[in-house]
Design goal:
This protein is α/β, with parallel strands linked by helices. It folds into 2 domains: about 5-100 and about 140-175, 3-Layer(aba) Sandwich (Rossmann fold), CATH 3.40.50.700; about 195-310, no CATH class. It is about 30% helix and about 10% strand. It has helices spanning about 15-20, 25-35, 50-55, 70-85, 90-95, 110-120, 165-175, 245-250, 265-280, 285-290, 295-300, 310-319; strands at about 5-10, 35-40, 60-65, 70, 85-90, 140-145, 155-160. The strands form 2 sheets. The protein has a 5-stranded parallel sheet with strand order 2-1-3-5-7, sandwiched between helices. The mean pLDDT is about 90.
Length: about 325
């Protein structure tokens, strides 16, 4: 009997999602005993031509991580969509654009110029920038960064930066065993991270008001007490649970990599609203002082979700 075929591919990403698959450890061995991994360029010596030779729909599931930032990302995403019965957006970058989506705050040409000629570590006396020549045979950057579902239809999402290996194994196992969840689902918890937080019992019984948001280097924080109670910003209230509280357990606040809850349209906007509700500010001056303590509001609230936010039309119009 022919095993179900699986493909894995990365677009614009750091490689952490590939590591997460390898971190399945024995789970990866269980997976490979029941499937045939036919395409995984990061790990296997597989060829593009082999992928194109597969009949359309003959791959059971493709796990795609990384944001869509270049022309070849679009091409590969569409090719894998055509070849696959199921497409899974794996990780925060494929799910919401991820950290890479913050590039939408700048023009692509400005980013390239900064990286190749303006960075302190750049040694480029001739000012050579990839794609500088119209005849250059390279994959050029798009005008903006997109999450995967802006380019192809996505059946499921596995959130996280990177996703916990257990979530990946569970998702693939369900598909292989023909027990697929309802399409369009984010395969994680439906409640906020705070519901699962090991520090949740340290929250005050009354309302919580913060006169000044502190940065981590400005204070010594108690590893057993809620970050918000200590004046440190934690996005657990506006972030989906299911991450195993990895950052919290490592004594670091949540930064939102699991994305918004099902009923939330814009995670960054929700984060701004929740932070405003915590401010102990009676005057505009006090509110301004509280906000001034946060040096990068966009990078904090939209760290993982800018490319999928309601701000998208602004980027499209300014491209």
């Amino acid at each position: 009997m022919t095993k179900p075929r699986i493909a894995l591919y990365w677009c614009a990403s750091c490689g952490g999602c590939e590591e997460a698959v390898l971190d399945m450890a024995e789970g990866l061995l269980r997976l490979t005993s029941s499937v045939d991994i036919v395409f995984w360029p990061a790990v296997m010596d597989t060829r593009y031509a082999e992928l194109t030779d597969f009949p359309d729909g003959s791959i059971h599931a493709s796990l795609i991580n990384g944001a869509i930032q270049q022309e070849d990302h679009v091409h590969m995403a569409r090719l894998l969509r055509r070849k696959s019965q199921f497409v899974i957006a794996s990780g925060a970058c494929a799910h919401l654009g991820g950290v890479i989506g913050l590039a939408n705050l700048n023009r692509p040409e400005d980013i390239l110029r900064r990286v190749y000629t303006g960075a302190d570590t750049a040694v480029n006396p001739n000012g050579v920038i990839p794609g500088g020549s119209p005849d250059a045979d390279i994959s050029r950057p798009l005008k903006r960064v997109y999450p995967l579902d802006r380019i192809v239809a996505v059946d499921y999402y596995i959130p996280g930066c990177p996703p916990p290996p257990a979530l990946i194994e569970k998702a693939l196992t369900r598909l292989i065993e023909n027990m697929p969840p309802d399409k369009g689902r984010v395969l994680a918890e439906t409640q906020a991270l705070c519901h699962f937080c090991p520090r949740k019992n340290s929250l005050p019984s009354g309302s919580l008001l913060i006169s000044k948001f502190k940065r981590l280097h400005e204070t010594c924080w108690d590893p057993s007490v809620c970050f918000l109670r200590q004046g440190l910003i934690c996005l657990g209230p506006v972030t989906r649970g299911g991450c195993e509280s990895r950052c919290i357990s490592g004594n670091m606040p949540c930064r939102g990599c699991f994305g918004p809850l099902d009923a939330v349209t814009d995670q960054g906007g929700k984060a701004l609203s929740f932070m405003a509700a915590l401010m102990a500010a009676d005057t505009e001056a006090q509110a301004s002082a509280a906000v001034a303590a946060i040096p990068d509001i966009a990078g904090l609230c939209y760290r993982y979700s800018l490319a999928a936010s309601v701000l998208e039309p602004i980027f499209s119009e300014s491209s």
